[in-house]
Amino acid sequence: MFDVSSSKPTLLVIDDIPENLTLMYQLLKDEYKIKGANSGLKGISIAESTSPDLILLDIMMPDMDGFAVCEQLKANPTTAHIPVIFLTAKSEQLDEYKGLKLGAVDYITKPIHPDIVKARVRAHVSLKLAHDILRGEKASLENEVARRTQELVRQREELHTIQDVAFYAMVSLAETRDNETGNHIRRTQTYIKLLAENLRNNPHYALQLDDRTIDLLYKSAPLHDIGKIGISDTILLKQGKLTEDEFEIMKTHTTIGYEAIQKAELVTGKSIEFLRYAKDIAYAHHEHWDGRGYPLGLAGNDIPLAARLMAIADVYDALISRRVYKPAFTHRDAVQLIWEGRGTHFDPDIVDVFMAINEELYAVALRYAN
User: Fold this and answer.
1) Does pLDDT of 288 surpass 90?
2) Counting C-beta atoms within 10 Å of the first and last residue's C-beta, which end of the chain has fewer, N or C?
3) Domain span at residue 44?
4) DSSP state letters, 309-358
5) What share of the chain is helix, strand, coil (3-state, %, to 5)?
6) Residue range 224-240: average pLDDT?
7) What is the CATH number of the domain that holds 248?
8) Are 304 and 282 in contact (CB under 8 A)?
9) Which of 298, 308, 303, 297 is nearest to 342 (CA)?
10) pLDDT exceeds 50 at position 21
């Protein structure tokens, strides 16, 4: 089949009659690069390999008619965007409707009128080239958006890494002040996660404890005793019971921790959800359900949920761990003491969850034993 190379737009003419191919070539060769095919299968092959700007397609062909060719072209992502004009002696409206429904952009009946053919081809080629420009711009824009999105993701991951390093540096600093706590931080953050995951089975807490919130609780839990950095070693590491005055000083670790986290948040100039949970935990994890805790004497649901969860996690771990001022309680005794604190020291709903999963919590304690 003929193929005249040039920088002109490319037309593909598909017709089984050689005279018709020659006629279209002579008519359009001055404005376009013409490719021809004398069967539907050859036409499809040429369209797939060269991606012409427009296809002029005869309907009445043996083996594979124009409707079948058009349907196959439109089903292939490589050729679906190429406009198709049907050329046919058939003039019934039903045939025209069928062709347009298959995806053709126009319908020219034979015998052809040269000026009409040129005008319609010119219009559809211009429209196709305009679409190509838009497609190119869209692709370029999508690539740029993808590039910028990837860069933002990289920057965000880098920022999270920096935040994690700073965070664990703070936690490690707190641990060095109280070297007998060992894996206390790892255990308590795992306890609080397990408690929260099971508490959300209670319909009252389901909306408050989605996956993101539980993840934030897990990440912020290690800061619960960050305020101990501000407590002197003579009190923090004292072997024996604290005096009343010493205990009053020890209680200030909640306020010191809250203020330290709040200052860190102020440095960023914006509210950070992770730090909000950390503040709640640091400030209120020694509050009691009956209002007899510290530092504010909050009671019931006025105590932030994050702090109510940490209260049980912290006390349970303190009970089963040896300290310079006491031996470790057995798991069974610790569970009994937590139960006895239901509705006074601790949130009753969380105690109920604790009782249901206490063996899981004990397994965590054994896994991360000092």
Assistant:
1) yes
2) C
3) 10-140
4) HHHHHHHHHHHHS-BTTBPPPPHHHHHHHHHHTBTTTB-HHHHHHHHHHH
5) 60, 10, 30
6) 86
7) 1.10.3210.10
8) no
9) 308
10) yes
